[in-house]
């Protein structure tokens, strides 16, 4: 069996990825998010709110079962939030904590526990795919916490890969920008005030012009990375390159 732990599997990219994986009867998916929206014999849901760090610390171990018959174990850190769009100096302090908890702190805890649990497992492929964003490489006004959180995720991934290479575990780690996808997150971006995000019209135009990828199309690209990791140009990569 192949086991995929996917955070944010309740909607958007994470759900499309989980559903695509479940089409293969060799795959089982553990989805982690606040809501459960998938019913399938090979799907297990672990409810967790990533903005509740104490709750995550208490329940995280439930995700990482022994999976004794695993041939492949894959963690996809996909859950993410953009938070309230707005300039620094006009944001609430809690906003930074919220975005970093969901986008960085909890994904780092997932990576840590995944490695702790499965690092030394023999005869089993192991991979961590963190869903990042081009915003981690290029600043956008109004998105400070989001941009910084994705930059942090990129560096966590690079460091983890360096360490796994030193340890010779064969574990692959990626931080992949999935492109612009037609999900709730994009809807929230299009609703921003132009004073809080100067490029908002560009994002409205993307939608109007049909330039957004569907979650299913984006999921296929992530699947391709999982199945053919050699297509990535490096740890930090973009679906635009495959
Ligand atoms: N959409 C884009 O254009 C785009 C572009 C670049 C990068 N990305 C990245 O792609 C990933 C997926 O984005 P998406 O567009 O699919 O987003 P989405 O449609 O808004 O879905 C977000 C997912 O994250 C989960 N989530 C949100 N808050 C959570 C919390 N407090 N605790 C646990 N889970 C939580 C949600 O589940 P619940 O609500 O059930 O908890 C949901 O399943 C994100 O990391 C995002 O940054 C997206």
TrEMBL record:
Keywords: Cytoplasm, NADP, Oxidoreductase. One of its GO terms (molecular function) is sepiapterin reductase (NADP+) activity. GO terms for biological process: tetrahydrobiopterin biosynthetic process. It is found in: Cytoplasm. It holds the Pfam family adh_short. SUPFAM superfamilies: NAD(P)-binding Rossmann-fold domains. Its main location: cytoplasm. GO terms for cellular component: cytoplasm. InterPro entries: Biopterin_syn/organic_redct, NAD(P)-bd_dom_sf, Sc_DH/Rdtase_CS, SDR_fam. The keyword NADP applies. The keyword Membrane does not apply. PANTHER family: SEPIAPTERIN REDUCTASE (PTHR44085:SF2). This is SDR family NAD(P)-dependent oxidoreductase. It comes from Rufibacter glacialis.
